[in-house]
# Entry
Amino acid sequence: MEKHMKAPFDKEAAKELRAGDYVYITGTIYTARDAAHKRMYEALEQGRGLPFDIQDQIIYYMGPSPARQGRPIGSAGPTTSSRMDKYTPALLDLGLRGMIGKGKRSKEVKEAVTRNGAVYFAAVGGAGALLSRSIVDSEVIAYDDLGTEAIRKLQVVDFPVIVVMDAEGEDLYERVLNSCQEET
# Structure
């Protein structure tokens, strides 16, 4: 099913999404990759706050290429999500509502997604230039010293994603894999 949604979004909105849905996101999302996740996790361990209010937000696992003239951002394709898996359950427990990346997630992340009524979306890998067209504004808000891995606040319009893991624990990757195994 094709859906349009605003970001940030709450638990009730997350529960309306199903694995396999095509979703177009409009609103505010944040970027963070490995190094930024490590810093956020360390800040939490030390009792310090995060650089943005994570409640009901979406983090896109992406580090952009330099912006071309007249554009707010360069190519903006997803990175492999499993690299953030050791940090993700803690962020989900704090209210993170969605993640955008590519690839499978760990059992611990899947449990945290279900426990917290969150959603894991996939963006199409290799389509970074196309995805960047949906980004209308980009601002570094934390960890500027990390360069492309700094945390950015993005404004997006109709950013295209697919629900891979829904709030009920349904996993599109597992469904497809099981379907392929049944055919053989």
